[in-house]
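Final report, Chapter 2: Outcomes

The project's central promise was a pipeline that accepts a single protein chain and returns its three-dimensional structure in a standardized token representation, suitable for archiving and comparison. That pipeline is now operational. To close this chapter, we reproduce one record exactly as it appears in the project archive, with the input sequence first and the structure output second.
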Amino acid sequence: MRNLSRWLVAALLVVVVVGGLGSVGCARPQPSPEGPELTLASGWKMYHIDQGPKDAPVILFVHGLGGSSEYWVQAMACTEMQKYRCLAIDLLGFGGSDKPEDFDYSMEKQAETIREFLALKKVDKVIYVGHSMGGSVGMALLQLQPDLVEKLVLLDTTLDPSYMAPVFQQISGMEEAQFGVLFQGLKMRAKETTADFFQAPSPETLEMSARVMKQSTSYSFLRSLKGIGLFLEKQQAVEVFKNLEIPHYYIFGTTDEGVARMVNDHFGSEPWVYAIENVKHCAMVEDPASFCSVLGKILAQ
């Protein structure tokens, strides 16, 4: 999130330069043409990937802010994942899923859609793997229906709100129209915007991350950011996570400075903490082999 803070500071210059554009950036992108969409009771559609034996234990992969199921594709192809049924979803507002304007994008509401999604898929137990914001949604799902989650695995999820304070300060009073202009600037420089999430991104990685970010809308992005802040302010998330009764694990990239500092400050050398060397915020993309090796060890426990 320290990276996002730098983005927002830079993008505020866009507001000054093109501030007359109003709510530019709020246009709803078209869903991805490939892959299945599941329709919720609300009529909203959720894009997802469903692969592996249908009677195998289920791993649910949930992306972070501005991400999509595409971030998990390489990891899901790893040998360690082949004996599991792997579900990767696009949260509402992101990827190929619908972007309803009358949705608040709170962590709790996203958790409710996941519960409904799993019920429609007739899945009653998952190993939940959440990246960044997806980890916060997982914490909310645990509160909503604890018996759904067998194991909780967080990847580079901020649990202490103080580590996001600069971002919260910048967006707290921001109107959606104003953020729409800012977000348009971020999307115009999508490769540069997303590059900061990776230690040494390949051209293919930058193309993917930029494409996925452009699928987001400004209102889903802003409401999600505010939703993370509100969720963490209400929770003692670090202590809640540390004291969960179900098996829980934390994975982080060693060059993701803010997260690494949080881990050092709060978790120390807990046996359920795993570091992946020389990657930043998206280990499953930067080094899927190492990520799958760590996840495989966790799944075997």
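Archive annotation: The CA atoms of residues 93 and 220 lie 5 Å apart.
This record, like all others produced under the grant, will remain available to the consortium after the project formally closes.
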